[in-house]
TrEMBL record:
It comes from the Bacteria. Belongs to the LuxC family. The keyword Oxidoreductase applies. CDD domains: ALDH_Acyl-CoA-Red_LuxC (cd07080). Signal peptide: none annotated. It comes from Actinomadura algeriensis. It catalyses: a long-chain fatty aldehyde + NADP(+) + CoA = a long-chain fatty acyl-CoA + NADPH + H(+). This is Acyl-CoA reductase. Its EC number is 1.2.1.50. It is an enzyme of class 1 (oxidoreductase). Keywords: NADP, Oxidoreductase.
Length: 472
């Protein structure tokens, strides 16, 4: 990505900032979006507007958790309201910079608002904290020696480095930042420098002075911009950085880590499927397993980390080809429903075209036009399948698939369901973080660990006040 200080042309889309409750507009810097290379303009980054003073108590600290949840629920209702001017304007602007078509983006924003549900938010808190009351105040404790103390899950100062693949992450990150009563700065992605501000403007429309609004800021700068990051990424201003995204995004952060400034990382992950030979027992089971596998491939049009990219199939070559044919048909159908048919980029097209000529080792179903493509092989391909491309890897036994699992494997969709328990310990030992029934890679069980951790538990600053020993 590049940036300039030249005033933009009138047709360059504007991406405003939100700083501690105030909208900041300007056209001081022109950037280009990651995927499409489309220009957009932002205000100048001003450090004072993005940093909440250390000597001030966080705005949300003494706001009851119940009130925070009520405010988030009302925000969700307003996000879903088709008359919401901030969301409409956001979608208009994002459609120019994001690789996904507007219809898909609209559906993602609306579905993301479902996270702002009272019962869901309470469950998330309860699963992350053994005693959620620690968020609202100091919890008295006494150990077996008689020593008294008080413990609190204190509000941290967080920088969230957001990904650009899904607007839903913005909704979730804002909600989680509010639930832990943090002071939050959201670094937006060049693919989507709009959604976070639209949500915060929606909140300000409810109550511009609400502590949630005052504890939130959102801005864009080019990742790795040392003139910004060497100032902001300091323990004087922030406690933790919550980083999503690829290797470059994480590497930009690591060099700033040190005592008092911690990383909570949602690293790049790859998800897979493991399908046993039971899928080939009949035409019915074959079609069912292929349909379920296609659902996992097509999560967010394969833009999400949970979307499957490799299917390890226990079958001979003839059985694998039958499965691939059905899998391709289901992916094509789902791709047509999504309205997203972007051609594969040139490098990926060239690699797949080369594989298609190697008939003894590979077979390809589909075309490189973005309508869905399946590659069958005996070893995983050495590139990252994306844009509705999946690699079916034929194995004689699912035991042969286990060594391909590692710490970068997020979700594994498994079929048949009754064999999952036989593999889950080995998959965990290899580093996998989640195993589900095939076809259920999408929404996870509410409150479960994410990327092998309970995130909210790590977002807070755990503070102890020790108060001496009770006389015997």
């Amino acid at each position: 990505m590049t940036e300039t200080r030249t005033p933009p042309h009138a047709d360059v889309v504007s991406a405003p900032f939100f700083q501690r409750g105030e909208l900041v507009e300007g056209h001081d810097t022109v950037h280009r979006s990651r995927d499409l290379g489309v220009a957009f303009a932002t205000p100048r980054v001003t450090m004072d507007g993005l940093v909440h003073p250390r000597d001030e108590v966080p705005p949300l600290l003494n706001v009851p958790l119940t009130e925070i949840i009520d405010f988030l629920v009302e925000t969700g209702e307003r996000i879903r309201d088709p008359r919401n001017p901030f969301i409409r304007d956001c979608l208009d602007r994002m459609s120019t910079t994001h690789v996904l078509p507007r219809r898909v983006l609209e559906a993602q924003v609306v579905s993301a608002a479902a996270y702002l549900d009272a019962r869901l938010l309470r469950t998330v808190v309860e699963q992350n904290f053994p005693d959620p009351a620690a968020l609202d105040g100091w919890i008295p404790k006494q150990d077996f020696t008689g020593r008294k103390s008080f413990v609190r899950a204190f509000a941290s100062r967080l920088i969230h480095v957001l990904p650009g693949n899904s607007p839903g992450v913005a909704v979730k990150s804002i909600a989680q930042g509010a639930l832990v009563k943090a002071v939050n700065l959201f670094k937006m992605s060049s693919s989507d420098p709009f959604t976070t501000v639209a949500i915060l403007r929606t909140m300000a429309g409810i109550d511009p002075g609400h502590p949630i609004v005052k504890s939130m800021s959102a801005a864009y700068w080019r990742g790795g911009d040392d003139t910004v990051e060497r100032v902001l990424y300091r323990p004087q201003y922030f406690d933790k950085i919550v980083a999503w995204g690829g290797g470059d995004a994480i590497n930009n952060v690591i060099k700033y880590l040190g005592p008092g400034f911690q990383l909570v990382s949602f690293d790049p992950k790859t998800s897979i499927s493991m399908v046993g030979r039971e899928a080939l027992a009949s035409d019915g089971t074959l079609d069912l397993a292929a349909s379920l596998a296609a659902s996992d491939v097509m999560v967010l049009n394969q833009e999400a980390c949970v979307a499957s990219r490799f299917v390890y199939l226990e079958a001979d070559q003839a059985g694998a080809d039958r499965f691939c044919e059905r899998l391709h048909a289901h992916i094509v159908g789902k791709a047509a429903e999504s309205g997203d048919a972007r051609p594969l980029d040139r490098d990926l097209r060239e690699q797949i075209d080369t594989l298609a000529m190697l008939d003894d080792e590979f077979r390809v179903w589909g075309r490189t036009d973005g309508t869905g493509l399946v590659i069958r092989s005996d070893e995983p391909v050495d590139f990252h399948p994306i844009n509705k491309v999946v690699n079916v890897v034929r194995v004689d036994s699912l035991d042969r698939a286990v060594p391909h699992v590692n710490v970068a494997t997020q979700t594994i969709g498994f079929y048949p369901f009754d064999r999952t328990a036989d593999y889950r310990d080995r998959l965990a030992a290899c580093g996998a973080q989640r195993v589900v029934r095939l076809g259920e890679a999408g929404p996870s069980t509410i409150g479960n660990p994410h990327d092998a951790m309970y995130p909210l538990h790590r977002f807070v600053h755990w503070m102890a006040h020790e108060d001496g020993t009770v006389p015997g």
